[in-house]
């Protein structure tokens, strides 16, 4: 913002291209998919640069050891996430919300991820 008075160090020929700011998808269901999918499509192919998850009040952390099946069943019903995808794609190597964030951060992603703390810590019911 403001007036540019000096030449740029680098310029890009964007002729014929659409130049837009990044978009933030404020409501996604990537809570499980973020554990195995580096691209997080379709959001990434639609120009989304940041995806927020944990919006529906349920999430994947905190999680007591051995409670994965109950959480998978809940997510199948509430979020319509296929149970087989969660069973095979998620490592379930966390207990606390911080541990979950660390597990997500250990996987490179093509877009930024934000996670909300859910109001229903499923694994601790």
UniProtKB/TrEMBL annotation:
Organism the protein comes from? Iodidimonas gelatinilytica
Q: Which Gene3D superfamilies match?
A: Metal-dependent hydrolases
Q: What is the lineage of its organism?
A: Bacteria, Pseudomonadati, Pseudomonadota, Alphaproteobacteria, Iodidimonadales
What sequence ranges are listed for the domain Amidohydrolase? 12-119
What's an example of a GO molecular-function annotation for this chain?
Answer: hydrolase activity, acting on carbon-nitrogen (but not peptide) bonds, in cyclic amides
Q: In the UniProt record, which is one GO cellular component term?
A: cytosol
Question: What protein name applies here?
Answer: Amidohydrolase 3 domain-containing protein
- InterPro entries from the entry? Amidohydro_3, Metal_Hydrolase, Metallo-dep_Hydrolases_sf
The residues the entry assigns to the signal sequence are none
């Amino acid at each position: 913002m403001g007036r540019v008075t000096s030449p740029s160090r680098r310029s890009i020929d964007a002729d014929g291209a659409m130049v837009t700011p990044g978009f933030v998808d404020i409501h996604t269901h990537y809570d499980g998919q973020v554990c195995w999918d580096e691209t997080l499509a379709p959001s990434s192919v639609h120009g989304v640069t940041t995806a927020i998850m944990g919006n529906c009040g349920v999430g994947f952390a905190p999680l007591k050891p051995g409670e994965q099946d109950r959480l998978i069943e809940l997510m199948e019903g509430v979020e319509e996430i296929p149970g087989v995808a969660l069973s095979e794609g998620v490592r379930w190597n966390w207990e606390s919300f911080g541990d979950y964030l660390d597990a997500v951060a250990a996987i490179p992603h093509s877009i930024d991820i934000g996670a909300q703390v859910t109001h229903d810590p499923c694994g601790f019911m």
